[in-house]
Fold phosphoserine transaminase.
Amino acid sequence: MPARADITYFGAGPAALPTDVLEAAAQALIDYKDTGLGIAEHSHRSALAETIINEAKADLASYLDIPAGDYETVVMQGGGTGEFSASVYNLVGAWVARQHAAIVKELGGEGAADEAAVVAALRARVETGLKLDYLVTGSWSLKAYQEAVRLLGPEYVNLAADSRTINDGQFGKIPDPSTWKLSKDAAMVYYCDNETVDGVEFPEFPAVLAPGADGTGPLVVADMSSNILSRRIPVANYALLFFGAQKNLGSTGVAVAIIRKTLLPPAISQPSPALMRKLGLPIPPIVLQYEIIAKNNSLYNTLSIFDVYIAGLVLKKLLQTYPDKVDGQQAVADKKAKLIYAALDAHPDVYRVVPDKTARSRMNICFRVTKNGNVDEAEKAFLKEATSQNLIGLKGHRSVGGIRASNYNSIPVAGAEKLARFIEAFAKA
């Protein structure tokens, strides 16, 4: 049996974790800081737990250069899929709250406006003006779009872009922003920054969504589950960022949301359940309501502090490794991706990279293998031989097949080099 040090694991998630992080976490699971209890046994209401959360939040803010005082970070359960729902509930609620305040002002202000008239005007505004925009560029953004339609109904959800329309019904490209059909005053504009299944990544923040000189602009929501911590991002351009932990941050079980404070009290409060019922709009479960989770410092219900602790260890390791923080990790991630893509591109008769060059992911390198005109047998042989060399987890997602090398932060440069050499050797065999 191979030892842990012999294996390079390219699985798409849960991803590999640094061995020294796991060793520290294993010790903490038995006895945390000489308390006689393991970290998973301490109360989530304890001072120890709160310190773990606060340190992880502070280190995340430092690593990503989150603008001080402008954003709230919360740790939640439900993963990225849970955030598909949470983003809808909370951003729709914020839109309703803004419209409600505007209508009250138009009708004479607090105390003067008739409540029935306010509700009637608000209902009319919901019916004519409420829109959520989705840019669908892969399997995960499609799932997010479908969840929004399920929760709200198709009349409120705008498919602003669908990459399948420009790629023969398949994912693999990002439509030109000039073709996006963006709504006026959308409650949010959602996209997935890196599509884990399809190997598509936005090369940069879409300029068409950037705030104007006055600071106003679309309320942009991004799922960064599989490329967070791997490159610098303009945090100030987003209303909301969310990501599951199990790719680059830690172990499975927790998700993180970075929320602009203008979407939270005291700047704005979610509408009452009674008002949302009158408008025919869904009411969020409490555990998906950002203002409740933020008010309780992520401890409204029992959170897995052990998983937060692992994420905190990963962040501390990143900060110690890279004095220039995320920029240092980005340079490494880019180097690894270039090594692997160069090996694939050198043998176009054997390998076909799935996404277009303009949208290739640095995190999830998806490709097909062909030898003697046979794809299935070639890919089986590729996976079998790769496994024999301890290159593990390369099978593509079950929905699309093929090969997928996930180039997460835990993959060392030596691991990427080993895979590139194997790609070369297999092509020449």
Summary: DSSP finds eleven helices and 14 strands in the chain.
